[in-house]
Design goal:
Blueprint lengths: L2 H8 L8 H16 L3 E5 L5 H6 L7 E6 L2 H6 L8 H5 L7 E6 L14 E5 L7 H15 L3 E7 L24 H15 L1 E8 L13 E8 L6 H5 L8 E7 L6 H30 L3 H9 L6 H9 L5 E3 L2 E5 H5 L2 H7 L2 H8 L11 E5 L1 H6 L1
Parallel strand pairs: 1-2, 1-4, 2-3, 4-5
Antiparallel strand pairs: 3-8, 5-7, 6-7, 9-10, 10-11
Helix pairs in contact: 9-13
The protein binds S-adenosyl-L-homocysteine.
GO molecular function: metal ion binding; RNA binding; small RNA 2'-O-methyltransferase activity
Protein name: Small RNA 2'-O-methyltransferase
Catalytic activity: small RNA 3'-end nucleotide + S-adenosyl-L-methionine = small RNA 3'-end 2'-O-methylnucleotide + S-adenosyl-L-homocysteine + H(+)
């Protein structure tokens, strides 16, 4: 390396955004590309990557593993659901679990993941742990994708303060050739392909040193392992679960029912309000009523057609206004939440006031009439 250039850069190397953020963004981009449902972060430390990943809507299971329980516990509360998650449960389900244990040991709770991330982990492993690591991750866990990042030692001379390693707990730091030969051998052994990339670009003129953080993305070459293969694997649990959060989800009937009831009442109120104000305007005169029908501008064209063609308009009987359930079911949000008309009827049964034949939501308008 050119000593003059090197000296110039050792003073000014500063990544923007910071390198850890670039690494986490790299994982997030990968998640957005491959859309894994189950993601495990090994050596998750303070759970900051897990926290970022919980917002990726494709993920339904997130797990973290670290050998240091105290560092995981520091900010693990950030992984708990917030009040807004209960007020507006998401359509996807999400479970976040943290385990205390070592990547040198196999535990069945780590089976079935689509993506496993090991960000700045391997350089913290003792020689004996590093030896066991490929068998645990690639042999036992065997996810479709594994991401491993580690410092590139060739970049270190550009940092003025790096004496031996970038962090006192690092057991080694590899050059690009060292990392690539380990990664290629691991990939070959466990039937994965691997591609190399990185984050933290070297300064212009110093491209040869490579990325500050080197990354290997491993993709499994064989199809999903079936139940039969997994059942051969050891069943004893060795990790200790230190945190578990199950997010409220519309996949859970209890939350779905609440959401459907609120949406049905809200939709019925809108229809009723519109109906009552038009009725006040046009009265019950049949000629004027047809004018009302053609001017129901609160509905989309589609819905207006339904109301007219299928006789789904609201009507008044005594002191009650009836809003047909079929009309309510035509509203996209109700429709999407319930899926079928039968499901809608089942979810609101006994929870919303319905007409005696169960075909309409009823509101008493006695007092509204009095006010008029
Ligand atoms: N992945 C984090 C930082 C990792 S630092 C990030 O992206 O910011 C390395 C972490 O690996 C530390 O939290 C350390 O406690 C953990 N670690 C070290 N040896 C381990 C082992 N054998 N098994 C699991 N975690 C380990």
């Amino acid at each position: 390396m050119d000593k003059n250039l090197q000296e110039e850069f050792t003073q000014i190397i500063k990544f923007q955004p910071p390198l850890y953020k670039q690494r986490h963004q790299f994982v997030k981009d990968l998640v957005e590309k491959y859309k894994p449902k189950k993601v495990a972060d090994l050596g998750c430390a303070d759970c900051s990557l897990l926290w970022m990943l919980k917002f990726c809507s494709c993920i339904e299971v997130l797990a973290g593993l670290d050998i240091c329980a105290s560092v995981m516990k520091e900010k693990m509360h950030m992984l708990s659901p917030l009040p807004v998650d209960y007020l507006q449960p998401s359509e996807r389900s999400l479970t976040v679990t943290l385990h205390h244990g070592s990547v040198a040991h196999k535990d069945p709770c780590m089976l079935g993941f689509d993506l496993v991330t090991c960000i700045e982990l391997i350089e913290h492993l003792e020689e004996s742990e590093l030896k066991k690591f490929p068998e645990v991750v690639f042999g036992f866990m065997a996810p479709s994708i594994v991401v491993i990042s580690t410092p590139n030692s060739e970049f270190n001379p550009l940092f003025s303060r790096v004496m031996v390693y970038r962090h006192p707990d690092h057991k080694f730091e590899w050059s690009q050739a060292q990392f690539q030969s380990w990664a290629l051998e691991t990939a070959r052994c466990y039937n994965y392909s691997v591609e190399f990339t990185g984050v933290g670009h070297p300064p212009t003129g110093m491209e040869k040193v490579g990325f500050c953080t080197q990354i290997g993305v491993f993709v499994r070459k064989y199809p999903q392992t079936g139940e039969s293969v997994q059942s051969e694997k050891p069943a004893e649990a060795v990790y200790k679960t230190v945190f578990k959060a199950v997010y409220p989800s519309l996949k859970d009937e209890k939350y779905l029912q609440n959401a459907v009831i609120s949406e049905v009442i809200f939709t019925a109120q809108i229809i009723k309000h519109r109906f009552m104000s038009k009725r006040k305007e046009y009265g019950d005169d049949p000629e004027r009523k047809s004018k009302f029908q053609s001017s129901m501008d609160c509905f989309s064209n589609y819905l207006e057609k339904l109301v007219l063609e299928k006789n789904m308009e609201p009507f008044v009987s005594g002191n009650e206004v009836h809003i047909p359930l079929t009309t309510i079911f035509s509203f996209p949000k109700v429709n999407r939440l319930c899926g079928t008309f039968e499901k809608l009827c089942k979810l609101i049964a006994g929870k919303v006031t319905l007409s005696s034949d169960g075909s309409a939501v009823m509101f008493n308008i006695e007092h509204e009439n009095e006010e008029n």
